[in-house]
Design a protein that fits this description.
The chain is of the alpha+beta class. The protein has eleven helices and 41 strands.
């Protein structure tokens, strides 16, 4: 519906009370700029009239919203300009551009205001109040109870604001405001480059994939020859943990110094090694999850770009274009949104660039950042809050690489709404060369300053106590429209690095709150103040470090369901219990079937029980000859491995499962052997405070480390993961036995001081068996890894 405007009262006092801010606001007129409005049906003639004025220059104009912003010449005063413009038939109303109390220029439309009604007010009640005030609805915003209204004929804007602010039904009212040029980009460093898409993108090159052991095929073992040497293992398994990298094969990865800075030359500038966010190290832990969505509130996106399209969140019939009421598809109206989105979530696909969170989803929400309405930005942020409430199984991060001219209640209210719905909201700090700009000053958001290839703040980046963290924002290479790529500078480019990191943290542990995600980001930064000694305390906690953040992210709880409880076939009367899952073994009368191999100590009665995993019935027993202090056992595919619990016993023996005779022995590391697991040619052996990886044929120690979950009293292996049980905490830590990446924590049922003394895992049925020695009971849990 075309916008029509009434002639409103000319005011000289620009004062009202903003209820949201609980503050009386007073503005003063500028002497060099005005905002003029006109009917949408008169847009062409009005634009022609305004453009032909010899004494002013149009700074911005929008025919669809019926306004223009004019810069006055030196010879024309504001009063003369207003009189001249109001005399034009095509011009409806004129208002000086106003300065707020912080000396920010505010671009208010003279004949519109925005009103947010209280939550309990129905749409019908709201419209009755609007009509009673003599107003018309110009735009019913997407946010419930949020309206853009016309100022009544012969009333003034600020007069109307004061009237609405006095109503109990109104949460707040404020002027309808234009954002003149709110992108936070300094310059395009070089023309965009188009990269041909290869016929078939190669698989990414990763030094170690999640959940994958260096030797992935584990056959059943029937015996070993003496003198077999330990096979050559990948060198990276023995590197320091920080040196393990997951390097992608995307063709422009070398230009992404912010992710991996080796000191390489990028866009003519040499870097400083490790002045980056350590993304390849972080990717050894996680590359993201498609259940985490980064909403990029920006100019839209190139929706068929090969480095954006694969990770787009399904839109369906949803309207993602908040700038155009006639369209719902958020195609990029410029380039800004495409570039920002690529930095956050470009996929790992063997071409182009890769984002910080390459396995997470992107939700591009289009708003106007050139001559756009602030109310529409509030709508977009509120939309994400609504999505978070509708989809509790997903996690949402909002990236906003833009500024506002000042404090706008609608956007601040939307931010508070999003944060209340467990959304992480991230804003660029601004390219002000000084103070942090709105909305980055709001305490609910993570405000991001920029750093360069040497970890130094560039001149353009805002700084100050409102900054929370810093991130790479110079010579940032990313996706551009028309399937191209290019460099940009700005805090706009720094912000999506942080948004991607928030997405990685939530991918690692979706049970975290947004406050916990924020805390992890801010407490794991690298100190950059040695490089910026005059800015101490003004660049936040430092430059973000994705690897440190993910290492500090608590392991997620792994959900489980109790399937059954089995009684010990023999009560424990000693000091240890052993448990292992046997996928198939010959059982008299029953043939070949799965079983639980179980042993618990009882004086002068050391027996291994083969139990039915479903009923607990004893299928058969065997006496491990000459092994009377067994503390742990494991099935190696053909025989039982048993370790003596006695300190200094010194061996891990191999036992015939049918006769109990010892058929082999290897040396064991010193210590009390409480946990044992077998995986093909490898044995994992716990001496409570240390886990050793042994080459099974000879007992050679390949590697050892402290258990990630604390003192380990039981071990089992399955699905590429090692399960380590801590009886004191009642937690089983599931982790990768080579990289030590913790998959998650299982808090087991039951109680007592010896609640995890044996573990067994049926990988086919994803069932974890937990031997609780305090209760003489085995719990069978379906675990959801």
């Amino acid at each position: 519906m075309p916008i029509t405007r009434e002639r409103v009262k000319k005011e000289t006092k620009f004062v009202y009370t903003n209820k949201f801010m609980a503050e009386e606001l007073e503005f003063r007129p500028s002497e060099d700029e005005v905002v003029a409005t006109f009917d949408e049906l008169e847009a062409a003639d009005a634009a022609s009239t305004l453009s032909m004025r010899a004494t002013s220059t149009p700074l911005a104009a929008r025919s669809d919203r019926g306004f223009a912003i004019l810069r006055l010449g030196e010879e024309e005063t504001t009063a003369k300009a207003m009189d001249s413009l109001e005399a034009e038939d095509k011009v409806a109303n004129v208002l000086p551009v106003l300065f707020d109390q912080a000396d920010n220029r505010r671009y208010f439309l003279p004949d519109e205001l925005t009103v947010q009604f209280q939550r309990e007010i129905t749409p019908e009640q709201a419209r009755e109040i609007i009509e009673a005030q003599g107003c018309r609805v110009v735009v019913q915003q997407r946010t419930p109870g949020y309206f853009t209204l016309s100022v009544p004929k012969d009333k003034g804007l600020f007069e109307t604001l004061r009237a609405f602010s006095e109503l109990e039904e109104v949460a707040f009212a404020e002027p309808s405001e234009v954002g003149l040029d709110d992108t936070l980009v300094e310059a395009t460093a070089e023309p965009p480059v188009k990269v041909a898409k290869p016929p078939e993108a190669p698989e990414p090159t990763v030094r170690l994939a999640e959940g994958e052991l260096p030797i992935t095929e584990f056959g059943e073992l029937t015996g070993f020859e003496e003198g077999i040497e330990v096979p050559a293992l990948p060198e990276f398994l023995f590197e320091e943990e920080e040196d393990v990298l997951a390097l992608p094969s995307d063709t422009h990865f070398g230009k992404l110094w912010g992710l991996h800075n080796t000191g390489q030359m990028v866009n003519g500038t040499a870097g400083l090694a490790d002045a980056d966010i350590d993304a390849p190290q972080a990717w050894t832990i996680t590359k993201g999850s498609d259940r985490v969505v980064v909403a990029v509130v920006d100019t839209g996106a190139d929706l068929d770009h090969p480095d954006l399209a694969p990770n787009l969140f399904p839109r369906g019939a949803e309207d993602w274009d908040f700038a155009d009421p006639t369209d719902n598809v958020p195609w990029d109206s410029g380039y800004h949104g495409s570039h920002v989105a690529g930095t956050a979530t470009a996929p790992e696909n063997g071409q182009g660039v890769v984002g910080v969170a390459p396995h997470c989803r992107t939700m591009p929400l289009r708003v106007k950042l050139i001559s756009g309405m602030n109310a529409n930005r509030a709508d977009a942020i509120n939309y994400v809050a609504e999505q978070a409430a509708t989809h509790p199984e997903l996690r949402f991060v909002i990236n906003c690489s833009w500024k506002m001219s000042g404090n706008f209640a609608g956007v601040h209210n939307a931010i508070q709404n999003a944060v209340a719905h467990n959304v992480v909201v991230i804003f660029a700090a601004g390219n002000s060369y000084g103070a942090v700009t709105y909305p980055a000053v709001y305490p609910e958001v993570i405000a991001v300053a920029a750093t360069d290839q040497q970890d130094v703040k560039p001149n353009f980046s805002a700084f100050g106590p409102e900054v929370d963290v810093s991130a790479p924002g110079v010579n940032v290479y990313s996706s551009m429209p028309d399937d191209t790529y290019g460099y940009l500078d700005g805090t706009s480019m720094a912000s999506p690095h942080v948004a991607g990191l928030a997405a990685l943290i939530w991918s690692r542990n979706p049970s975290l709150t947004n406050a916990q995600v924020r805390s992890i980001i801010e407490t794991t930064c690298d100190d950059v103040y040695a490089k910026n000694p005059t800015l101490v305390g003004k660049l936040g906690a430092g430059r973000i470090n994705a690897y440190r953040a993910l290492k500090a992210t608590p392991a997620p709880p792994i959900p489980w369901k109790l399937l059954r409880e089995l009684k010990y076939p023999q009560p424990n009367a000693g000091s240890s219990t052993g448990l292992s899952f046997v996928p198939k073994i010959q059982v008299p009368w029953f043939g070949i079937r799965p079983a639980l191999a179980f042993l618990t100590q009882k004086a002068y009665s050391e027996q291994v029980f083969f139990m039915n995993p479903w009923s607990g019935a004893v299928l058969r027993t065997v006496d491990p000859v000459a092994n009377d202090t067994i503390g742990s056992l494991a099935w190696d595919g053909a025989a039982l491995r048993v370790a003596n619990v006695t300190v200094g016993a010194g061996s891990i023996n191999r036992i015939n499962p049918f006769t109990g005779a010892q058929i082999g022995s290897i040396p064991a590391p010193a210590g009390r052997g409480e946990g044992l697991a077998a995986a093909g040619p490898w044995l994992f052996y716990s001496t409570i405070n240390r886990i050793h990886i042994l080459w099974a044929p000879t007992g050679a120690v390949v590697r050892s480390y402290p258990p990630p979950g604390g003192p380990c009293r039981a071990l089992t292996f399955g699905g590429g993961w090692l399960f380590s049980g801590n009886s004191l905490t009642g937690e089983v830590t599931v982790f990768h036995p080579w990289t030590l990446h913790v998959r998650g924590i299982i808090t087991v049922p039951g109680g007592g001081a010896q609640r995890i003394e044996g573990l067994a895992y049926d990988a086919t049925r994803r069932t974890l068996y937990v031997a609780n020695q305090s209760q003489n009971k085995i719990y069978a849990l379906a675990v959801f890894l």
